[in-house]
Design brief:
By secondary structure, the protein is an alpha/beta fold. Helix content is about 40%, strand content about 20%. Bound molecules: zinc ion. Keywords: Methyltransferase, Transferase.
C-alpha cells in the first residue's frame, strides 16, 4: 500500500515538474518575442474563478491570425485545476491600441451600409436572437418605459433590434469608441462614452443590461460583472453572451487552432459551470444558460489551419477573418455553412461554440 502511495506521489511530482517546465518554456518564448517587439505583457496568473494562482497547466499557445502587423507573440493558454481557461501572460492594457487596430471589425466604419438583402437577413437574425434570449425574461414595469443598456454596443445594432421588438423601450448604449457611438446616437439611442466602472451611471437604473461578447475581452471579469450588477434594478435581468469551452470544437482544437480564442483578444474562456461560479461571486443567479451556434469561430478555426499550408492571401480569400461583418453574399453563405456545422456539433455533443446566459440578482446576499 505504502509502495503504491509512494509511486503515486513520485508520479504526481514528476507530472507537476513537467507541467511547470512546459509553462516556463512557453512563457519564456512569449517574453522573448515581446521584448523584440517592445510589446508590454501583463503577468497576472490569478484565476478569477477559484482565486488560486498556481494550480495551472499550459494547454496551448495562440497567435494573432486575423489582422496583420499587430503582434507575432504566441500567448500561452493555461487551464486552472478548477477548469477556468485564460491567457498568461496576456497583453497589457497599454497594448489595446495595437491588438484592436483601427480596422477591427467591431469598430465598423463611416460608410453608410448598402440596403442589401444580406444585411437585412443579418439584422433579422439579431431580432430573432433577442426575441428568444431577452424578451421572455424582461421584468414588468409600470408607469414608464423599460430602460435597456447594451454594454459594448458599437454602432447600436442590437439596440436597433430591441427597438424593433419593443418600440417604446428607452435604449442606452455604452462603448469606448466615439465614432461607433455617434452612429448609435444618430439612430436615436442614448449614448454613454467610456468604460464601465469609470463612467458615472445611476446605480440600479436599468431593467435589463445586455453585454454580448465583451466579458471574455476584459482583464477582470469578476470586477466587470460586479459593475454590471450594480446598474441593474432589483427585479432586472442581465443577458450575457460569450464563447464556451464546453463545445467539442474547443476540446479538439484547444492547443491553439480554436477560433473561439480570437487571439490575443479573448483573455478568459468560460464553461457553463465556471460562469455560474463567477455570477455567484458577483451576487447573481444564473436563471438560464444555453449554447448556440457561432459560424465565425469555425471560419477563424479554418483560417488558422489554412495559414499553416497556404499563402496568407489565399487563406484570407477562402476564410476571410472579417467575415463577421457579413457584407458580401460569400460571407453570408460561409457563415451560414459554418453555423450549420456548429449546429450539428451541438446536436451531437450538446454544446455549440457560443453561450447565452440570463442572470438576476441573487435572492440571498452574496457570501
Ligand atoms: Zn481556478
Amino acid at each position: 500500500m505504502i509502495a503504491i502511495l509512494y509511486g503515486i506521489a513520485r508520479r504526481t511530482a514528476k507530472t507537476t515538474k513537467k507541467r511547470s517546465n512546459t509553462l516556463n518554456t512557453t512563457v519564456e518564448k512569449a517574453q522573448q518575442v515581446a521584448a523584440r517587439e517592445s510589446f508590454q505583457l501583463e503577468h497576472d496568473n490569478l484565476c478569477v474563478i477559484c482565486g488560486q494562482r498556481s494550480h495551472v497547466n499550459v494547454i496551448g499557445a495562440v497567435k494573432e491570425h486575423e489582422y496583420e502587423n499587430t503582434t507575432a507573440i504566441a500567448f500561452p493558454v493555461i487551464q486552472c485545476q478548477c477548469g477556468h481557461v485564460y491567457l498568461f501572460p496576456r497583453p497589457s492594457i497599454s497594448e489595446l491600441g495595437r491588438i484592436y487596430p483601427p480596422t477591427y471589425y467591431a469598430f465598423g466604419d463611416d460608410s453608410e451600409e448598402p440596403d442589401s438583402w444580406v444585411l437585412r437577413a443579418v439584422a433579422r437574425g439579431r431580432v430573432k436572437a433577442l426575441e428568444t434570449r431577452l424578451v421572455p425574461f424582461l421584468p414588468q414595469v409600470a408607469g414608464r418605459p423599460l430602460r435597456i443598456l447594451d454594454i459594448g454596443c458599437g454602432e447600436g445594432k442590437f439596440l436597433d433590434a430591441i427597438k424593433t421588438l419593443i418600440p417604446e423601450a428607452q435604449t442606452y448604449g455604452l462603448d469606448s469608441s466615439s465614432s461607433a457611438l455617434s452612429r448609435a446616437e444618430r439612430k436615436g439611442h442614448k449614448i454613454i462614452h467610456g468604460f464601465i466602472g469609470e463612467v458615472e451611471i445611476e446605480p440600479q437604473f436599468f431593467d435589463a443590461v445586455i453585454c454580448l461578447h465583451v466579458i471574455e475581452h476584459v482583464a477582470r471579469p469578476d470586477q466587470f460583472l460586479n459593475e454590471c450588477r450594480n446598474l441593474l434594478q432589483p427585479a432586472g435581468v442581465m443577458l450575457f453572451e460569450t464563447p464556451t469551452i464546453d463545445t467539442l470544437a474547443f476540446r479538439v482544437f484547444r492547443s491553439g487552432v480554436w477560433g473561439g480564442y480570437h487571439a490575443p483578444r479573448h483573455w478568459h474562456l468560460f464553461s457553463a459551470s465556471s460562469f455560474a461560479r463567477l455570477a455567484g461571486k458577483a451576487g447573481l443567479d444564473v436563471k438560464h444558460n444555453e449554447t448556440y451556434p457561432i459560424g465565425t469561430f469555425w471560419v477563424w478555426t479554418f483560417h488558422v489551419l489554412a495559414m499553416k499550408w497556404l499563402p496568407r492571401s489565399i487563406a484570407d480569400t477562402i476564410f476571410p477573418p472579417k467575415v463577421i461583418v457579413g457584407r458580401r453574399f460569400y460571407d453570408f453563405a460561409l457563415l451560414a455553412a459554418t453555423s450549420i456545422l456548429d449546429s450539428l456539433i451541438k446536436l451531437s455533443s450538446k454544446a455549440a461554440g457560443g453561450m447565452w446566459i440570463i442572470m438576476t440578482h441573487r435572492s440571498a446576499p452574496p457570501q
